[in-house]
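U., I forgot to send this yesterday:
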Amino acid sequence: MSKRLIVTGPRNARFQEVPDPACPAGGLLVRARMTAISTGTELRVYRGIPVDTEGKYLYPGFPLQFPVENGYSMVGDVVEAGSGVSGFRPGDRVFVPQTHKQVAVSPADAATRLPDAVPDHAGVFLSIVEVAHIALRRGEVLPGENVAIIGSGLIGLSALAYCRVFGCRTAVLDLDRSRLSVARTMGADWTGSPVDEGFMDGIMGLFGGEGADLVVEAASTWKAVETGLDIARPGGRVVVVARHTDQPHFSPVNYPYLRKNLSLKTSYGHPPPGQRWDRRRSLDLTLDYLARGRLRFAPMITHQFEWEELPDVYARMDAGEAEMIGVCINWT
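Result:
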């Protein structure tokens, strides 16, 4: 028997004891070492907020119904490899996109073996930092460009870490001062809040009076999208990577944005296999950067808890503890 976390209803999470799963053909049986909280997504599920305006879906194509497991980031040890699986053996340390639980099964093709140089607390954020990596690729980021990142949660700070590797000049925007402090520690060239006096002058001063070449919106509000359109240079690009559950209060295709000839994109998931930056190629690059110490995001890993504390951690996040950014859950 082993434990798994379930959300039984809005703002109600607990552990459930279940039989250990059997290892499927073509899959892996994995015992958890550590899981990570994707704070935005998991808090939305914990609160029972749907992704659609009709209130039918918790995820695209997944009905809004409870109980439901939560999370998608695990580092663990392979206990058993199913028939037909090659490339993995018991004892391998892997990342798998699985929920918070002691024992998980995963398709072998969804598992990623971690290099020895990548510790658990970095590897467990692999899927989360990849969300930012994909968004920058969607925005066609180039070395030396001016990049503004709106929102300094996990995705925004992950985007900052990649921008540092890619040699971009970076501005990070957030309403929370503690999170901006983390962004400065991670090397942001400028940080500020859109409500500050002189905010626009600061952004334009950093970017030579022209605005941002690329804006990554990771704040999950339409107000943030509006700010992104405001600070993008004429001909610039805005990539929305955050999921929005609020409604727009302005038109992104009317005055004053139409005349700026902006490109507005959304980002969700890796491109299909075979494309240059498909899932495997993208993960390989990220793991190489991590193993060589080039992709650095340690300051955003702010908290670590034991697995028994997870329901209380959700409650604290729900209550507004914004200083919780990167949260690791220890299962060993």
